[in-house]
Amino acid sequence: MTDILYTGPIPAERGGELAMGGGRSETSALSGTGGGRGMTTTQNSQRPNACCFCWCCCCSCSCLTVRNEEERRRRRRRKRISQDTKMETIPNCEACTKPSVEEIRLWSQSFDKLMRNPAGRNVFREFLRTEYSEENMLFWLACEDLKQEINKSAIEEKARSIYEDYISILSPKEVSLDARVREVINRKMQDPTPHTFEDAQLQIYTLMHRDSYPRFLSSNIYKSLIHGGSRTSSES
After folding, report:
1. Which residue intervals define the domain RGS in the entry (predicted)?
2. pLDDT in tens, 156-197
């Protein structure tokens, strides 16, 4: 005899049985696939969590993009230095007088005070070299030099040199800039001025301030200057 499929309402006591997980129910039969509806319900109940998880991942990845890119460039630069450029001559530091203990201590008060001091810039640049990010300081200094130029042909020459050394993606000393700033630079390079790289210089300054400066203050390079200066003062 062929079984008759019941499609009417489920009695209350039978519904209670189903809620307690009792065996294969009429609900499975109603799906027409032997439990398909139950599976669909379970899958639907899991979807919000999956979507939430994906959204959180995307948000986190987006927030870390700039910093991760900087880290990748440092690793590539570290590899190039260890393999190809060990004999490369390091550009000379800025001419400056020996800083006093008071000056050295002022560098920890603000990044601006460090960057205004030639000796401070030299020490910070030495620290950046240990992190394979010296090009940030070199780029900033090159922009400062360009701002002082008044001869048009010299401005064009220096602007082209800065672009090739620090902006071009083919340069081993390329600095980390976002797409908007790069687009601005490409427009301005059609007619360079002393302020062609102003936006880029500010972005790199901010990067050094937020990313490198806190580590510099905790570095052995800075601590040795503080301790060495204090020791000299006490001996005198």
Report:
1. 110-226
2. 999 999 999 999 999 999 999 999 999 999 999 999 999 999
Contact 189, 159 (CB under 8 A): yes
* Cβ pair 125, 134 in contact under 8 A: yes
Backbone angles phi, psi at 152, to 5 degrees: -60, -45
How many residues appear in the chain? 236
Compute the distance between CA of residue 135 and CA of residue 131 in angstroms, rounded to an integer. 10
Q: Which residues contact 171 (CB under 8 A, 6 or more apart)?
A: 164, 165
CB atoms within 10 A of CB 166: 22
Write down the pTM of the prediction.
Answer: 0.62
Spatial distance between the Cα atoms of 117 and 4, rounded to a whole number of angstroms? 93
For residue 235, what are its two tokens? 């001996």
Q: How far apart are CA 137 and CA 72, in angstroms?
A: 18
Q: What is the DSSP letter of 166?
A: I
**Count of C-beta atoms within a 10 Å radius of residue 143:** 23
Burial class, 127, CB count within 10 angstroms (exposed 0-12 / middle 13-18 / buried 19+): buried
CB contact set of 215 (below 8 Å; sequence gap of 6+):
127, 131
DSSP 234: H
User: How remote is the C-alpha of 54 from its chain's centroid?
Assistant: 21
| Radius of gyration of the chain from its Cα atoms, rounded to whole angstroms | 32
Determine how many CB atoms are found less than 10 A away from the CB of residue 119.
20
